[in-house]
Amino acid sequence: MPGKPEVIQIKGITYVPGLFDEFKVEDNYDRWDRLPDLLWGLGFEMDAYNSFREYEKQSTLKLKPAGSKREERRNILYLLEHADRQIVGNYLFSTWRDYTHWCIPYGDEYATDFLRRIIAILESKY
């Protein structure tokens, strides 16, 4: 039916446009309590960046050397734009977990923006 969004069912959660909207308005990613359940339900794994690192090693994309955290994130986002949905979702899951549980201090002033940019890339894959 024209105009009707494609619905994708994965592991019990159906992706529909707007599924991630609540994370676009809440600036404190520590309050993104539903994110891990959504990502798990959509079939993504918190793999400590393993799938991304493997993709990065095999990638033939040309990247400028990163001289700062900002440039490093630029390169990551560029790679994610060319990766498949599974890698993007796994990366988002691992990054959220990294910021909320693994790294101290938690994230930085641009962490929420970085997460939102990854969400936008993930949404573009549906």
Structural notes for this entry:
A two-stranded antiparallel sheet has the order 1-2. The chain is 49% helix and 5% strand. It starts with 7 loop residues before the first strand and ends with a helix. It contains five helices and two strands. The protein is mainly alpha-helical and 126 residues long. 22% of the residues are buried. The model has no long low-confidence stretch (mean pLDDT 90).
Task: Please render the helix and strand layout as text.
Layout: E1 8-10, E2 13-15, H1 35-41, H2 50-58, H3 69-82, H4 85-102, H5 111-124
Antiparallel strand pairs: 1-2
Helix pairs in contact: 1-4, 3-5, 4-5
The helix content, as a percent range, equals: 40-55%
Indicate the mean pLDDT. 90
Radius of gyration, in Å, reads 15 Å
* Number of strand elements: 2
Widest beta sheet: strand line-up: 1-2
The residue ranges in which pLDDT falls below 50 over 5 or more consecutive positions are none
Q: Helical stretch count?
A: 5
Q: How many domains would you count in the coordinates?
A: 1
Strand pairing plus helix content: what structural class? mainly alpha
For the sheet with most strands, the description reads:
2 strands, antiparallel
Q: What share of residues are in beta strands?
A: under 5%
Order of helices and strands: EEHHHHH
The geometry reads as globular
**What is the CA–CA distance across the termini?**
17 Å
